[in-house]
Amino acid sequence: MTEATIEQLRIPETLDGELAHDFLQAVEVSRQVRVHTWGNDKLAYTAEELFAQCHDPFEWNVVLVARQDGSIVGRAGIVLPLDDNTELAYVTLDVLPTASGAGLGRKLLEAAETFVRGENRKIVMVETNHPAATLADAESEQIPASQGSGTLPLSSREARFAYSAGYELERVEQFSACALPLDAALVAKLSQQAAATHKSSYAVHQWMDTCPEEWEHDFVRLERDLVDGKPADDDDDGNGDAQEPWDVAQLRETEELSALTGRRTLVSAAEDLQTGALVGFTSISVLGKRQDVAFQDDTVVEPAHKGRDVGLLIKVANMEALMREFPQAGSIFTWNAPENSYMLTVNAQLGYVSAGMTGQWRKDFNAL
Fold first, then answer.
1. What's the pLDDT band for 352 if we cut at 50, 70, 90?
2. Whole-number Å distance between alpha carbons of 355 and 175
3. Residue ranges with strand state E in 210-341
4. Could you list the residue range(s) of the whole structural domain that residue 142 is in?
5. 180-206 pLDDT, tens digit each
6. Residue 214 in domain
7. How many domains would you assign to the chain?
8. Same structural domain for residues 44 and 79?
9. Peptide bond between residue 57 and the one before it cis (omega within 30 degrees of 0)
10. What CATH number is attached to the domain comprising 255?
11. What is the pLDDT of residue 2?
């Protein structure tokens, strides 16, 4: 067996033909890693999704691959924001289980760090994934996150890898899964609970893929609130930090990009009937090529309207929309900060169960 070499992958112009072979092989590496980690490929993006990400106008996507004996056995996906946070780089590492344990992950990470330094990026973010079964060692030394209340055990191979590479654990999120469809009696009970709390003070508006012009400015404002100061009522789809502050033009461009991948987005928003303004929304996304799996994206509720079960109201409505529009969806996933007790409670009421944790790790080259 020859020593693995690292090279930058050329992104093909299309997914057809011989020129797409290496790209598709790298996608398959990512799929196999997620099967090994979670026991299935439900969290693996399709080739179409990753291809579209490589053409995102708001970020530059670069892929490094590790090649051994002619085959790709590992990859490092590098995301470089282009509009804001241009000091940041996000790195995702995937190494086939059959090739792990030989230092290949460290070699890929060092190559990615060299690349982002060359692009004058000062901070690198890396994510690690931890199924619940790997977190059961109560005797292990815990690594505390610098933000929030989460910790990860040093006994975890992934946590130890990031820690030994000089990364600081910035935050931890609980990864949860919910089986679909929900029981009709449960949906009715939760809808009644929300209505009893808010006393018909809100109206729910729903759309798929494209925000109606009537609500576009409110929707953008709520997205800005999410970025400027992450509200307590939040979910995350696990694809990294929230979007940068939008304007309407960027919202429309993002919607068009999603449409090209076939991704569908369901939104339920709450209108305050006193002011006529949207005060919260929640969104769910379904991949174009994987409509059996859904992802709970952001949930935002303005601070002045918390404590009235607005989050529960719109999340139940959106789950109903998901089951109605995509009856083939058998599961939905979400990520939450461990200290976000309200949203974790709402999710538990809906039937979510914890499946593990993810860690967000940070290295600041300025501090070295």
1. very high
2. 6
3. 264-272, 277-287, 290-301, 331-336
4. 5-172+359-367
5. 999 999 999 999 998 888 878 999 999
6. yes
7. 2
8. yes
9. no
10. 3.40.630.30
11. 79
